[in-house]
Every structure is written in structure tokens, then in C-alpha cells.
Amino acid sequence: MEVLSPSDRERCAAWWEAAAARRGELPDELRPVQVRLVRAVARGVLPDAGPVFVKLMSFPRFKDRLRYALRSLPATHEARLLEHLRGRGVPVPEVRFVRVARRCGLPWLSMLATAEVPVVDEPLEPDAGARAVARLLEAGVEHPDLNTGNFLVRQDGVVVVLDLQSARLRPGGVMPGRRVAMVGKLFADLLGLQGGAPRCDAVQLRAWQQALVHHGVCSSVELDAALAGAVQIGQRFQVGRIRRCLQESTLFRRRRGLLGVSHERRSHAAGGVFVEGGGELVRYWIGDRALEILDQRPPLLGALHRPWPFLPRRYRVYVSAGGADALAEAANRLRSGHDRYLDLARGRGSVARSGEPLSKSS
């Protein structure tokens, strides 16, 4: 890690203190790039070192605190991997600042600042991307969340590897099954199976496959397994996005009370009404979310209240517009959405945007 000047250290310390005072929120001086429930990424400028990206992670949910209870916190872990790759000659962003804190032995706050990489606005070529994946593997780094966003093309044409928070160092080398899983994750990203538009067509996908084989990332026999893994990843991704309507997440709140459990969108249309009913309202709530994810339909429901099983109370859903009549009219559609969710959860639903089956030659 590069030694910072006194003014740069002072600026980083100010960012850290501001984030700590605001319980994990970004300081006003930083410009947000991506903000989620547990992680935020922002741009900032150090007086001497110049532009940096700041990754700030908090741990608001108990499961997040438990996950890192016995592990290095994200900033420390990622900085260590970045320095390891730099030592192996792999181009990575320079680490500027690392700071982590625990409270009562549990993770509380994690901050990592890395130098901003000057990039060109050009797509990642399959040969360059496959070569970058091969260099990761040669350095003994497994990246279970591999996607094209992990690579940037510098102005001099060099591919830079970044975002190693979920990566792991394997001193004995990355086992073949794990390599296939990495490629499957990459294919899922290229095919748009994890949200967003596909990043390549059939011709470009074939070029990626050939490049990965050429650079020794996987064999031609393993490509089919990687593509099958991509479909499974897409299914799990969609199921996870749908299930967030029952969890505490960036878009939803979950509250437990004396009368039951409430789920609500953090932002939903005002002016609606609550409609009472039986357990089928849970199916409607999940089906509404499924249709939002799978068909990009605007949601009808803004909240769900589930009573505790031992209480003689009814379920309630908040209908944003139209009340009970709108809910009755949409009932069949919401049931269909719930059935599609169940198909995905059982590994039967289709996630290929083109509707075409995936194959090694696709």
C-alpha cells in the first residue's frame, strides 16, 4: 500500500470519522456511485494522491455481522488480495486507505479506498478478458462472483482487475470444479441472466468460449457444465431477488411486532388501502414481486402483514390503487406469478432472455 501524505491521511481519517458518526452512511463530500443496504461505493479526491473510489460497508443485519464474526472484514481482505495480485504482476488498483472497526467483537464498519483507474469507454474483448481470468487463476485467486464488471480497460489497453471482496486466495491452486463455477458465473453475466441486458450475442459468446479454452481457463468439455451452471445461477439470482420481498433489504423493510410480521416497500405509492384476507395474500405478495422481476410489471402491492399463527387475525395487503376490486381483478395474474416463482425455486423455470436453450455452440 502506498504511503499517503499527511494531508491525504487527514482527508481519509475525516471520511472515516464522518461515516462512523453517521452509522455507516457516506460522508457528504463523497459522490455516490452505488448505494445498497450493506455497501456503498463512492468517488472522492485526495489532495495529493488524486481521485479514489471508496467502498464503505456496514453491517445492519445480524446475519451480516455473523458472517464476518470470525473472518477478516471486507476492506482488510480485499486490500490483502489486491496487494497479492500486484506482487504477482497482475494489474490492480493501488490501495490508498484501509480502516475497519468491530464492536463487542462483531463487525461494525469497513472502509477501503483505492486509486481511480483511467479507463477507455470500450467493451472488454473476449481474448483480453479470458487472459485476465487466466492470470487470476495463475495467481491462485478464486473469484466466485466473476463478471465483466470486474475488469476495466486502461487507457494504455491493459486490463485491470478490481472488486475482489468475494474472492479467495487458494495457495494450492483453484480446483477444476471451482474454475468451472467461475466460468459459469461469467457466462451468466454475459448472457444477462443476473439482471440487465445481455452483454454479448451468440457470435461473441462463441469468441469468449474459444478464448477461455485457448488461455487454459477451462477445457472444451467443461464449457457445457459452465453453461448449465450459468442457467442455475440465473435461477438462483431471480429467486433471491423475489424473496427479498420477505426480507430486510435495500427495497423492503421487515418488522416483527406483537401482532405479527410486516413487510413493506421502502417506497410505495401513497393513497392506497389495506385489504384483508386469508393466507392467499402471501402468495399474491410474492407473485406481485415475481411479476415485477420477471416481466418488469409495476407492483400493485405496497405492504403485507402476516399475523402470528396463534393469533385469530387476518392477513392484510396494501393495494396501491383500486382497493379490493383491483386486487380481485389481478388475483389470477398474481397466482401465476407465484407459480412461476415456485418453478424457478425448483429449478424448472427459464431464465434465458432469448428463449433459446443454451449450449456449447450457442
Concise overview:
The protein has 362 residues and is an alpha+beta fold.
CATH topology tier name of the largest domain: Transferase(Phosphotransferase), domain 1
| Spatial strand arrangement across the major sheet | 1-2-3-5-4
What's the total number of strands? Answer: 14
Distance between the termini: 44 Å
Which CATH architecture of the largest domain? Orthogonal Bundle
Describe the main β-sheet briefly.
Answer: 5 strands, antiparallel
Tell me the fraction of residues in β-strands, as a range. 15-25%
How many domain regions?
3
List SSEs in N-to-C order: HEEEHHEEHEEEEHHHEEEHEEH
Enumerate how many helices there are, as a single number. Answer: 9
Tell the overall outline.
globular
Uncertain parts: 352-362
What is the rounded Rg?
Answer: 23 Å
Mean pLDDT: 91
Structure description:
The chain is an alpha+beta fold. The chain has three domains: 110 residues, Phosphorylase Kinase, domain 1, CATH 3.30.200.20; 115 residues, Orthogonal Bundle (Transferase(Phosphotransferase), domain 1), CATH 1.10.510; 95 residues, no CATH class. 38% of the residues lie in helices and 22% in strands. It has nine helices and 14 strands. The strands form four sheets. The chain has a five-stranded antiparallel β-sheet with strand order 1-2-3-5-4, with helices on both faces. Strands 10-11-13-14-12 form a five-stranded antiparallel β-sheet. A two-stranded antiparallel sheet has the order 6-9. Strand 4 and strand 5 form a beta hairpin. The radius of gyration is 23 Å and the shape is globular. It starts with 5 loop residues before the first helix and ends in a 17-residue tail after the last helix. The C terminus is likely disordered.
